[in-house]
Fold this sequence. Notes:
Order of helices and strands: HEEEEEEHHEEE
Structural class: alpha+beta
Number of strands: 9
Shape: elongated
CATH class of the largest domain: Mainly Beta
Helix content: 25-40%
Number of domains: 2
Strand order of the largest sheet: 5-4-3-2-6-7
CATH architecture of the largest domain: Roll
Strand content: 25-35%
Number of helices: 3
CATH topology of the largest domain: SH3 type barrels
Radius of gyration: 29 Å
Amino acid sequence: MGRTHKLLLTLPYLACLAGPAHAEEAPSVPAGTLVRVTAPAVSKKSLTGTIVSATEQEIVLALPDSEPRTIPRSAVTRLEWSRGYHRHPIPGAVIGGLLGGAFFGAASLALCDAASCSVSMAAVGVGFALGALPGAGVGALIKTRAWAEVKPSRVRVGVAPVRGRGVAAQLTLRF
């Protein structure tokens, strides 16, 4: 088997092991998307804004109440995009239920007149149920943004014609 055949068999195998292959680097997040950029060389805090444009060298962000800011891609250590808002009814119900159960359990212990009293599990159960309902309501009122990290492409595959010799392929792996 010739060297060319071995190369043609090896390249697809390496590309499959490394992950998705891209013929050319394109902006992984489209313009108009709300993003949070961490670039310690540019700003001490993370910058949150809307992408105006993105190239292989830089990202231009429209920040609230300021002019668009250009951030070199080499300075970016983390890039996250907003998936929108989400609410928290289940954690609110759990917290409300625990608080209600603890309150009703303590109240049942405090109201007991006998010499040897213990916490009433029925009171704890009722307190949990009564606390979970308003807790879920409060949790549903709390909105936070959900952020998803943008993974940089790890593999680049380039194919270009070579005069007099056919086609040349280039595989670049980033770690």
